[in-house]
Structures are given as C-alpha cells and as structure tokens.
Here is the input.
Amino acid sequence: NAGVTQTPKFQVLKTGQSMTLQCAQDMNHNSMYWYRQDPGMGLRLIYYSASEGTTDKGEVPNGYNVSRLNKREFSLRLESAAPSQTSVYFCASSAKTGGRETQYFGPGTRLLVL
Amino acid sequence: AQSVTQLGSHVSVSEGALVLLRCNYSSSVPPYLFWYVQYPNQGLQLLLKYTSAATLVKGINGFEAEFKKSETSFHLTKPSAHMSDAAEYFCAVSEGVGSQGNLIFGKGTKLSVKP
Here is the structure.
C-alpha cells in the first residue's frame, strides 16, 4: 500500500496562473480532505469529500475548487493563484476504526506563488 | 464549537528528560482526540488517538496521552526524550463521523531535543 500520494511535491506559480494538485489513496477510504498548513496556524481544512460524488466546504475554501473524480482520487484546483495561497497543502483520507474516523495524511505539496 | 489549544509553540528538553506537550480542547459532545507528529518536510503521522475504552492511551515511539475530562485536557508525554523525537506535534479534535468527523487542529508545538 502506498497510502496517500500527492503530486507534485513542489510547485512555483506566478500570480494568476492555474494549477491542479492531485491526491490519490489506495486504502479504499470513503472520506478525503484537503488542508493547508501555514506557519503558526496549524492545519486548516479547505474542502472535504465524505464519499464519492460529494464535496463540502471547510474552513478556508475561497479561491479553491475540488473534484472527487472517483473513490481513489480527490483533486484541488487553484483557478487564479494568489500570493496568499503560498502554503503547504496536505491531502488526507479517513477510515472509521473503533467507531471513529482516523485520518491518514499524504507527504504534502509545497506551493510558492510569486 | 470545537477548538484545540496547544500551550507553548516551542518546547525544548534535554535528551533523556521528560517530554510534556499540553493540549486542551473544547467540545459540546464527548470528543475524539488525536496526536499527530510531523517531521521536517514530511506529512503528518498519527501518534495516538483517544478511544473511550481507556483514559491512558499508548502510541508509537513510546509516547502516551491521558484524557482528563474534568480538565478538558489530552496532554502528550514521553518519559525519556530522544534526539529523534525532534519534530512538530499537533493535537486535534473531532466530534464524530461525516462532517462532524472533520479534525480541528491546534497550532502545533515544536519540540527540540538538546544533546
């Protein structure tokens, strides 16, 4: 099992450019998540998908869109990147174990917007 | 509304000393609590999670945490720090499954271990 994989690992964009961050999991999890991590802020939820075909906004959704392509894949799109979106982005998926959802994280994508 | 407070953004201990990382939560229902560790330039790894079966939870790498409802705390401890424990630690809370299973993270505590 590869677990949760993310591509790319690093990306530099110019303001106004668009890009899609890819995430895939091979653990047959129903739920998937996108977070951003900024210094001193912890992790903040951007969007999540409780199951294939559904997506919902998290704490900081503005400037992002998501697609739950199938059960395995959950992508995050920046239509017009802004310097404020410079961050490290983490994808996670979760399974219900012991009555609780436990989230497993990918290695992250480091994004710099100039 | 749920929230998590981690006291101390930086903690420094000597190798072999006790590690204590503090986490307090607020939740309107019995919470589900987690500790994650993040090594430099890596993703988050689950250290341990609270299940109602026991208030003292043992995790990986010799860490453990105790759930204290009266203090709304879930502090992380390790009796003897090792250099390899240097990392950032995040406490998180959720209230259940589905949208209520979404994690609310604390802002993290960076642990430094001095030789």
